[in-house]
Amino acid sequence: MYQPKHKWLGEGGRIRRRGIYWLPNLFTTIALFAGFFSIVQAMNGRFEQSALAIFVALVFDGLDGRVARFTHTQSAFGAEYDSLADMVSFGVAPALVIYVWALKDFSAAQNIPLLGSWLTTKLGWVAAFIYCACAALRLARFNTNIEVVDKRFFQGLPSPAAACVVAGMVWAMNEYQIRGVDVKWLAWALTVFAGLTMVSNLKYYSGKDINPRKSVSFPVVVAIALAVVVMVAASRALPEMLFILFLGYALSGYAIAAWDMIRRKGGGGQPPAAPAP
């Protein structure tokens, strides 16, 4: 009986076709389309739609993995496809949106002391490229370390959260009719901050240890109810609320690092415990 030498070869040396689970990959395709749609809308000057599309991509990016686990349709193809879609939706799209909205105005900027006119005109696309490159590095590191890191925490700011920080700023400023050229330095600093935080070693809570079947205490139920009330009350200020929410999450990694440093210093000053008899 013929035994193929490679797993991808069937009997007679013919290529074996591997099936593709359509349901989780459908959600991934929708997320990919949302990222592409965001780029197109930014090129047409419709920044509110472009920012909103990135948040839509966030929703469907979170659904594809959960649908795959719930229906037991995980696959290596789906994981690779999801990473490529994430690079478009949360790497390229936010970088181009923030560049077209605010960072391209550095090309007409005047000479800045200590930088020179040549470097001043390049600050915009340099910041956008830093973000895009850091998103690619963040995704590559996540894929290679997925089996060795603590599931409770992400290593570095997740690229969807970083994308929502950038898109949230564009959306919130657009609500107040603030042009990108008026806040280009703030946009530059936020873009570089989001990019570098993605490739940092800061810990970010992943929420993967939350079990919806597990019972919780009464104060937790009250806190959840209050959070729902606040979200409903602030529904008219949805762009501002989302921007503050994701910016707070981006800063939480620095807060966790500061708390760990304080705790280590506090523990280091204590005398060693006496040996047990």
Give the helix/strand layout.
Blueprint: H1 22-43, H2 47-70, H3 76-101, H4 116-145, E1 153-155, H5 159-175, H6 184-198, E2 203-205, H7 218-233, H8 238-268
Antiparallel strand pairs: 1-2
Helix pairs in contact: 1-2, 1-3, 2-3, 2-5, 3-4, 3-5, 4-6, 5-6, 5-8
Model description:
There is one protein chain. The chain has 277 residues and is mainly α. The chain has a single domain (11-208, 217-254), classed as CDP-alcohol phosphotransferase transmembrane (TM) domain (Four Helix Bundle (Hemerythrin (Met), subunit A)), CATH 1.20.120.1760. Helix content is 65%, strand content 2%. It has 8 helices and 2 strands, in the order ααααβααβαα. A two-stranded antiparallel ribbon has the order 1-2. Helix 1 (22-43) packs parallel to helix 3 (76-101). The longest helix is centred in the last third of the chain and has 31 residues, at 238-268. The protein is globular, with a radius of gyration of 23 Å. The relative contact order is 0.10.
- The rounded distance between the terminal residues' Cα atoms is 70 Å
The CATH homology group name: CDP-alcohol phosphotransferase transmembrane (TM) domain
Supply the CATH architecture: Up-down Bundle
How many H/I helical runs?
8
Highest CATH level, the class: Mainly Alpha
Arithmetic mean pLDDT: 82
Strand order of the largest sheet: 1-2
In angstroms, what is the radius of gyration? Answer: 23 Å
Give the number of domains: 1
Number of strands: 2
Strand content: under 5%
Spatial shape = globular
Uncertain stretches: 4-9, 271-275
Structural classification: mainly alpha
Order of helices and strands: HHHHEHHEHH
